[in-house]
Amino acid sequence: MSFDHFDYKGVRFAKGAHTEETISHAENEFEVFDDDIYNVTYPKSGTNWMIEILNLIKHKGDVTKSNVIPIHFRSPWYEAVGCQEYIDKMDSPRILSSHLPHHIFAKSYFKSKAKIIYTMRNPRDVIVSMFHFTKILSLYTPAENFQNFIEDFIQGKALFGSWFDHVKGWMQMKDDERFFFITYEELLQDLRGGVIRICKFLGQELDDAQIDLVVKHSTFKSMKENPMSNWSQIPSEIMDLSKGAFMRKGISGDWKNHFTVAQSEYFDKIYQEKMKDLNMSFFWEQSS
Ligand code: A3P
User: Fold this and answer.
1) In sequence order, what are the residues at sequence separation of 6 or more whose Cβ sits closer than 8 angstroms to the Cβ of residue 154?
2) For the structural domain made of 2-286, what CATH number should be given?
3) 123-133 helix and 261-275 helix, angle to the nearest 10 degrees
4) What's the pTM value of the predicted model, to 2 decimals?
5) Is 190 within 8 Å of 127 (Cβ atoms)?
6) Ligand 1 geometric centre to CA of 189 (Å)
7) Number of H-type helices and E-type strands within the chain
8) Residue located nearest, by CA, to atom 17 of ligand 1
9) What percentage of the chain reaches a pLDDT higher than 90?
10) DSSP state of 18
């Protein structure tokens, strides 16, 4: 997995998208407000899906903003280069995104009442989604060798470091009342149920019709067709959608079309080893 990078506290970041200053600012100086909502994920785990859901919940299903504001401006990544100026203009409650691991997250968060929604996805599908993403996002050298890609992912040589460390780091907060976690697969299986649980966590009271609207406008089909949600507003020098779609497949289990049996068994062994100290079982462990 190749991209121009630097390391910060053991985690790999992409030059261009981040600098040591933006990461240090995000960690040490960024001011978290008590009513902020943070959409935190490891990349390719459903970040944009959650941006859509959270913004629709904020507006009680009203799609107006989703139809006029590109998705990357609705909930900017607070650690990324150039995002602060949008964040400064945001209305409260701010919905912000982040891929930061727990140990680099804004220190001011831990003294606040702000809420975090952490979305996780089967790491095998994360690998596949990321593999294809390298072909359209210009900061990456397009990946060709899937075996090497799996190995780099396992070794934490991906953007934002190790998936295993990310998940284990954030799961330290699983019993904190400011923290809610959900999986991509749960959302796929029951989007309405997921939206209702998120509303409850946020203390947002939406009626049935409003929940229906949130669901309607956050399906894969709606987002893929919405030019403000499918990343088609981004310059092609940054993301070249002629080489592949950002809204690619939106399914669970595409890894089965990419992993050989040997790769799957190898990954499984590593997964068991790395996750054994986290006493939790995840949705994908039953089905993979
Ligand atoms: P695939 O590449 O497997 O299709 P992120 O937003 O974290 O970068 O994650 C991108 C992945 O989420 C892509 O996965 C994308 O298709 C999928 N995705 C985005 N919106 C979705 C939706 N509404 N429903 C299902 N999957 C969605």
Assistant:
1) 267, 270
2) 3.40.50.300
3) 120
4) 0.97
5) no
6) 14
7) 14, 8
8) 250
9) 97
10) B
